[in-house]
Design goal:
Layout lengths: L3 H11 L4 H8 L3 H8 L7 H11 L3 H6 L10 H6 L4 H12 L2 H20 L5 H8 L5
């Protein structure tokens, strides 16, 4: 598919959704979706990310037509099958938390990750990513 508008329309049709339902799901108006599908203008990055998350597809597919598209298994789902029993338990409990609880857990994990990166206890690529963050 040659345009982002055509990919949005293709995704909506694959999901068997009306423009109204699809637009509501990703947080835009039906008119905006119609204009995107007709290639009158391009979606904002927030709209692309919202559609990617909601429909569990690659932003690369929406933007460029590459990467996992509708019906394909994204890498993050493939990795989930590789979780240890402890990781699965933590993930299941995390999903049961309300948004405030999830934010608290995320802050704790980010802080712990940062501290371990400072001590050199993470792999090089993860250490470099963590070094750019500041947690106090």
């Amino acid at each position: 598919m040659e345009s982002i508008g055509k990919r949005f329309k293709h995704l909506r049709k694959m999901m068997k959704m009306s423009q109204v339902n699809f637009a509501q799901a990703i947080g835009i108006s039906q008119g905006t979706l119609s204009d995107i599908e007709k290639d009158k203008f391009k979606p904002s990055i927030e709209t692309v990310i919202s559609a990617s998350r909601y429909f569990n597809i690659s932003t690369d597919w929406l933007l460029k037509g590459t990467g996992p598209g509708p019906g394909e298994v994204p890498v993050r789902e493939k990795r989930q099958a590789e979780l240890s029993p402890l990781e699965r338990e933590i993930l299941e409990k995390f999903r049961e938390l309300d948004e405030e609880g999830k934010r608290e857990v995320a802050h704790f994990v980010n802080y712990t990750h940062f501290e371990q990166a400072k001590k050199g206890r993470l792999s090089t690529s993860t250490s470099e990513q963590a070094a750019g963050k500041e947690y106090a």
